Structure formats: C-alpha cells, structure tokens
Amino acid sequence: MIQIVHHKLGLTEYRINYPLSSTTQFFDIREKKWSIDILEKFDLDPGLFATPTPSGTEIGKVSPDMAEKLGFSKNISI
Known about the structure:
Elements: H1 2-8, E1 15-17, H2 18-22, E2 27-28, E3 33-34, H3 36-41, E4 51-53, H4 64-70
Parallel strand pairs: 1-4
Antiparallel strand pairs: 2-3
C-alpha cells in the first residue's frame, strides 16, 4: 500500500523499512535482506520486493509537479 503513495509522490525506487519487511516472513532480520532460501521455496523473485532500508532513511524527494500540486516547497525529502 505504501508503494502506491510513494509512486504518487514521484518516487521511482521503492523502499521498505526493516521492521515492516520482517512482517512478510520473507526477510532475514540478521542479514538485513530478503531471504533467498525462503523466496525460492515460494518461487518468488526478490526483484519484486522493495529494497529494505533502516527506519528513518531518506528514500527520495517529492517530484516537483506533485510538490506544486500539494503546496509543498521544492526538494521535500521522503
């Protein structure tokens, strides 16, 4: 769901924080990456998943068009 919001704000590289990643049961919290072993058991491509990042990481900027529509100043970080 959050990827839809990110897309609407103009982000093109999707990210997910570690705590939210861990709720999928496909995330290796010790290694901080998607578990290839688990994904292979379900025949899932890791490329389908957002890039895991630490909480609080800046993941991009609101697009200039969307910032203008929302009344934001330019260069708003997400």
